[in-house]
Amino acid sequence: MADYCPVYAPFFGSMGCTAAIVFSCLGAAYGTAKSGVGLSAMGVLRPDLVLKCIVPVVMAGILGIYGVVVSVLLSGGLAMKQTLFSGFIQFGAGLSVGLSCLAAGIAIGITGDAGVRATAQQPRMFVGMILILIFAEVLGLYGLIVALILNTKAAGGEMCAIRIYVPFPFSPILPTFIQ
Fold it and tell me: Which of 63, 74, 117, 169 has the fewest C-beta atoms under 10 angstroms from its C-beta?
């Protein structure tokens, strides 16, 4: 008899929560640090532009919020008795937002570092930097959207109590009852 609700199924959901927050915060931390280095170097040359050029640091911090949102939503769907399908869906949702926010954080960090340094030398570069930062930020937003859609597909433990009757009792492939 196949067990569709093994005891280790909630582990995958928990790892989805963990992946969402860890990878998103890694991306946010890298983006903040890399942009902050560029901002500090730019502040020596042009201290009047520091407040204007703090945008990459703020945009990198938003990536961590995406991870927190998905992690909280996924943790609300965890149950002691959970289907393996649900655990895998939650794991995939956590990975989708986490890894996309990690990629977005790397892109924001590199763009922010180079962008604020370029803005110090040529202030007209600011608009171009903001546009590139928006395109980098939307990568994390794509992961958030996919994670939210995946989370709607994850069912709780209600499927674990249902016994499905298979009408072919002597079939060598299908068992009489699937739990």
Answer: 169
What topology does CATH give the domain 9-153? Four Helix Bundle (Hemerythrin (Met), subunit A) (1.20.120)
* Per-residue model confidence (pLDDT) at position 125: 95
Look at residues 175, 156, 173 and name the one whose alpha carbon lies nearest to residue 165. 175
Contact of 93 with 16, CB cutoff 8 Å:
yes
Whether residue 177 is predicted with pLDDT greater than 60 in this model: the reply is: no
CA distance 20 to 33: 20
Residue 46 DSSP SS3: coil
* 77 φ, ψ (degrees, to nearest 5): -95, 0
Q: Which of 111, 142, 106, 136 is nearest to 125 (CA)?
A: 111
Domain ranges of the chain: 9-153
Residue 118 identity (one-letter amino acid): A
- 76's tokens: 């609300």
Is the four-CA dihedral 64, 91, 148, 141 of positive or negative sign? Answer: positive
pLDDT classification of 179: cutoffs 50, 70, 90: very low
CB within 8 A of 53, min separation 6: which ones? Answer: 39, 42, 115, 116, 119, 120, 126
| Residues near 95 by beta carbon (within 8 Å), at least 6 away in sequence | 16, 19, 20, 23
